[in-house]
Amino acid sequence: MAAARAGSMAAVLCTAATLIVLLLAISSVSAYPRHKATSKTAAALMEDPHYQDATDMYGALEPLRKNYSRHPELYDSVLSSWRCTPHHSINVSCLFHNLYVNKTGTFVILLRNDNYPVRSYNLRLGHLSSMRAPAPLRFDSVESAMSFLGETDVSEHLTMYYSLPWGWASNFGHMHFDGLYPSYLGLVEFGLHNEAFDQVVYSKECIDKTLCPSHEHMAKFGGGKLTTWHELGLRYNETAATRFLQLKLAIMGASNKPQRLLNREVTVAGRSLDGLWKFSRRMFERYNINLKPLSKDKFVVNIFHNKRFTAADKVKLRDLVKKFNETIKSPIKVRYLTWGEVPTYRQQLELLAETDVYVSGPGTGLMAHPFMRAGTFVINLGSCWTPNPRDNRTNKFSIPLFMEMYMCEAAPYQKCYYTDSRTRCLGFNVTELEELIHRAYSERGFRVPVPQGDIPPEGKVFKEMCAQFPQICDKVLAYFVSRAAPPWLEQYVYEVGPFDPTFSDPRMFGNPFIDRESLRSVRKKYEHLLQKMPEPASNASASATALSALRPAPKPAPAARMKMK
Question: Whole-structure pTM over 0.85, yes or no?
Answer without folding.
Answer: yes
